[in-house]
Amino acid sequence: MFWGIWTLYLWIIIKSQKAMNKFSLQIIKTTLIAVFFLFNYATFAQSDFTLASGADLKVTGTSTLHDWDMKSSTATGKAQITLESGKVVNAKNVTITMPAESIKSGKSGMDKNAYAALKTKDHKDVKFSLKELVVKGAGFEAIGDFTIAGVTKSAKFPVTANLTGEKVTFKGQHDFKLTDYNIDPPTALMGTVKTGNEVSIHFNVTFQPTK
């Protein structure tokens, strides 16, 4: 009788330990899974960013007289940027809006002709909206839409993205034709000086975390 009770007691203890071991293993597995997902969330964190002041925006082109450029440092924008191990790996919902009459050449006559060509009385802004950022070698290819003089066209162009501290800087250049946006190349001096149809938008813009 004694040995039977003792054997039953030992059996209960062994079963209890096995149950506890299974329970402990389940807790460990659950904890590891949670840590894995938290680590990946932190590693691939997507955050909201806002365009910092002092954007470097420039439009360049040619004419029958000389090359020209117009510059602006006024723009607003926002983005959702994904970072991994101190690098930019993706961005979406990126928008940049520049007041069309914020670009200046330093020559009032040229500015006036440019604003007329851009139809700024009816279309106040030049806008870019990013649809997709595709990895291309050491940089990216931006795929999105430009809206210029009220006309929206799709665009693809190379960009670089660099993280410095908490700020992300995008640099790139988009080449296009004025006539793509139904813009007649401006002329001056009774038509003797004509702007070339091919122009480029250069940008060097920095986004900072939205506060």
From TrEMBL:
Residues 48-208 form the Lipid/polyisoprenoid-binding YceI-like domain. InterPro entries: Lipid/polyisoprenoid-bd_YceI, TTHA0802/YceI-like_sf. Keywords: Membrane, Transmembrane, Transmembrane helix. The keyword Membrane applies. The keyword Transmembrane helix applies. The chain crosses the membrane at residues 23-42. It comes from the Bacteria. Gene3D superfamilies: Lipid/polyisoprenoid-binding, YceI-like. PANTHER family: PROTEIN YCEI. This is YceI-like domain-containing protein. It comes from Belliella buryatensis.
